[in-house]
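Objective 1.3, modelling of assemblies. Example input:
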Amino acid sequence: MIQSYRMVAEETDFPLHLGVTESGTRKDGSVKSSIGIGTLLADGIGDTIRVSLAAPSVEEVEVGHQILSSLGIGRPGVNIIACPTCGRMVGDLFSIVDEVEEAVKEQGSNKDLEVALMGCAVNGPGEAAGADLGISLGRGRAHLFKRGEVVRTVEEDEIIDAVLEAIETWDEEDDAEAERAASAEATAA
Ligand code: SF4
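Predicted structure (tokens):
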């Protein structure tokens, strides 16, 4: 599929609609679609996309949006990232990630934010501080980061509410102002 689209793109400027046909189940089909569509989009090939899964069409749409947001294109939205976990993990990060992802989906925010969910207090804080919003788990609690600073310590069972509230109250004006200030500083330097 990838090779065919590359050959067609060399021959024409017509818009191209990308999709992996009969890709399979939720999991296998999402992986195949992500590779096929994502590789071509990263090459600059493709104008529209479709994801075809043996699953309800709402899931196909969600996977399509995830492919676009993973490439930093498409409509704005909350991008959740999480650490791969290792022996240092404290707490149940897997459930927290699943629940935050589901809750954020339901919240339906169109704020363009990266939210990092990290499993320990060793390497977690650095990663959480690097995102717009982040949490790093400690024993039974977590630090909540906003723009690189710890703004709250929350109990483990309050994490989801705390993340949702931080997204809801994220002030885009402040963010734009911070970006303008950083760019003015860089220009002056
Ligand atoms: S953030 Fe902590 S728990 Fe997660 S992978 Fe890194 S070291 Fe392991």
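Residues 83-86, 88-89, 118-120, 122-124 surround iron/sulfur cluster (CB under 6 Å).
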